[in-house]
TrEMBL record:
Coiled-coil annotated spans: none
Family: Belongs to the CYRI family.
Gene Ontology CC terms, in alphabetical order: membrane
Main location: membrane
Native organism taxonomy: Eukaryota, Fungi, Fungi incertae sedis, Chytridiomycota, Chytridiomycota incertae sedis
Protein's name in the database: Protein fam49a
A family per Pfam: CYRIA-B_Rac1-bd
Cell location: Membrane
Keyword Membrane: yes
């Protein structure tokens, strides 16, 4: 395990090694159960992603209702926001499914040496902010509150308790990622997951993704996928590892990873770098080398 991580980190900038990945891997008997759970969730994944990408919100109706208050404008804004909140509820419930499943996948992959499990269980290993959303939901909650005060009827799309949880969820800039990090951190805290194995798992994912992009072995549009995997792995590793992902002793070659994003990120370069800069927790720590801080300045 240590040898693989050393190779992934130490040779990253000079001569990336070739790490074969079987994208057509079939689940082994041992991973069949967890694979089936992943496949079930994955069926809805594309649908939700497309729905979120197309989400335009009710901004114009809300602005009209606020700037020119009238029963007609209020009614139009309410009629527009209700189906949107129903969608937001679906997004939230899907995120809850991911939050419950993700620690199970990690627990399966990290039950022993992650290197061994990645060799055996490749099928499982790789089945893995819209401002309008928060604006619409905030307007919905304010309107519901006014209705209650005036005893007006209209009906809640979601219960008050669920609305509170959804507000906390959507308030974060990367709500799904935040939920998954919290779920993994809770698993580590409760000793359901071994922190060393989890950190090694994300270090391997980051290293393998780096190698695929830097050696240009990906399929069309593959760079974007592997860069997102790499950045997500850095993010998880930094939140879970006590020393973070930026220290000299980190198992991830941060400088090589950042340079790869800058070289191959295309239109995603700034969003990916912003995740590394603003969603991690150890970048500005004293243990982070000055050269790394300057690279991300």
């Amino acid at each position: 395990m240590g040898i693989l991580l050393s190779i992934l980190k130490g040779q990253a900038e000079a001569n990336p090694i070739d790490i074969p990945i079987d994208f057509n891997a079939q689940p082994t008997p041992d991973e069949q159960e967890i694979y089936a759970q992943c496949a079930q969730v994955a069926k809805s994944y594309k649908e939700y992603i497309e729905s979120i990408e197309k989400y335009t919100g009710c901004g114009e109706f809300i602005r009209q209702a606020i700037s020119s208050p009238s029963k007609q404008n209020d009614d139009q804004a309410w009629e527009a926001v209700v189906p949107c909140v129903a969608k937001l509820k679906e997004y939230y419930e899907f995120a809850q499914q991911l939050e419950q499943l993700f620690p199970k996948v990690l627990g399966f992959l990290c039950s022993q040496d992650p290197t061994v499990n990645f060799e055996k269980y490749q099928a499982t290993a790789f089945q893995m902010g819209n401002p309008n959303i928060q604006n619409d939901f905030s307007y919905y909650r304010r309107t519901v509150s006014r209705m209650k005060m005036s005893n007006a009827s209209g009906g809640n799309v979601v219960s008050d308790e669920l609305a509170n949880r959804m507000s906390l969820f959507f308030a974060h800039s990367n709500p799904v990622t935040k939920a998954l990090i919290d779920a993994v951190s809770a698993g580590v805290t409760m000793r359901q997951l071994k922190v060393d194995h989890v950190c090694d798992c994300f270090a391997i994912l980051a290293g393998v993704s780096y190698n695929k992009v830097s050696k240009q072995q990906t399929q069309p549009h593959g760079d974007a996928l592997f860069l997102r995997i790499m950045v997500a792995s850095i993010l998880f590793h930094d939140h879970i590892d006590p020393v973070g992902a930026f220290a000299k002793e980190s198992k991830i070659n941060i400088r090589a990873s950042v340079k790869t994003i800058q070289q191959y990120g295309g239109n995603d370069t700034n969003p990916l770098l912003n995740v590394v800069k603003f969603s991690t927790v150890h970048l500005n720590s004293e243990t982070t080398p000055k050269a790394t801080k300057q690279l991300l300045a």
